[in-house]
């Protein structure tokens, strides 16, 4: 669990870049079908990876500390996102900003991509509570109990989406079953055949259907089959980005909002691809730049709980 898996970092890189790309409204609105297709698998795959990678072999104080340092950037950035959504002309606009509304967004119904951190924390705490204690219940029994916990959080308290929690649970099941990630998600270029067949039916372009779940599996399998053929420099870059996805998830909304100012300058390209390349580059570089500033100003211990968030790049 302490050793990074290059293929997993590569997958995380692909999915975080897709998340950023389709939060760029000017680009995503031009390709509604592609957006619907990508939304079928990119965050479900991220949740599977999250459940698989979460470490529960920690003492309660260590696990609590880990969660606190997800909570702090979440609270800061979600609060900022809500306030900006009340004053800027954005699609996900807030009307009538108030303390009650802010608390509702922070605790129950987060806005923007920060819903992922909210779900990650709630699902993670439940996972730790069910699986950490030593005792007689086996893996299957604990998975059932964890699924019931997620159903209660979703249906009774309505603080998570049940399908999203079940994708997290799927990652937990793979880990607790003792199966290597790349053994369960078998790399196969032939996954493209059923993937195209399923994607051709609009009814399957929904993460909350069996067809959508199959698309999630197949896209992971296909991407893993491509990985060995990538140039070493591409692998190194993907590994670096994939090992810093928290930075991109936390800071990318700042730059996807600011990228709207580029629209008049880049609207000459009707495809939106020039805008995508420029805005994506600015968002990635800007997010890493903010993390670098926090490191240099020695603020990372108060924001991330780490002396240094950005790790040296190694090829």
Walk me through what this model shows.
This is Acyltransferase 3 domain-containing protein. GO terms for molecular function: acyltransferase activity, transferring groups other than amino-acyl groups. The protein has 315 residues and is mostly helical. It has one domain. Helix 1 packs across helix 12, helix 6 crosses helix 8 and helix 10 runs antiparallel to helix 11. The radius of gyration is 20 Å and the shape is globular. The two termini are 22 Å apart. The mean pLDDT is 94.
Radius of gyration: 20 Å
CA-CA gap between termini? 22 Å
Shape: globular
Give the helix proportion (percent range). 55-70%
Can you give the mean pLDDT? 94
Structural class assignment: mainly alpha
**Percentage of β-strand residues:** under 5%
Low-confidence stretches: none
Q: Please trace the helix and strand order, writing H or E for each element.
A: HHHHHHHHHHHHHHHH
Main beta-sheet strand count, sense and barrel state = none
Notable traits:
315 residues, transmembrane helix, 16 helices, acyltransferase activity, transferring groups other than amino-acyl groups, Nod_factor_acetyltransferase
List the helices and strands and how they pair.
Elements: H1 6-21, H2 25-28, H3 32-53, H4 60-87, H5 99-107, H6 115-131, H7 139-156, H8 162-176, H9 181-184, H10 192-199, H11 210-226, H12 232-242, H13 245-258, H14 263-266, H15 273-296, H16 300-303
Helix pairs in contact: 1-3, 1-12, 1-13, 3-6, 3-8, 3-11, 4-6, 4-13, 6-7, 6-8, 7-8, 10-11, 13-15
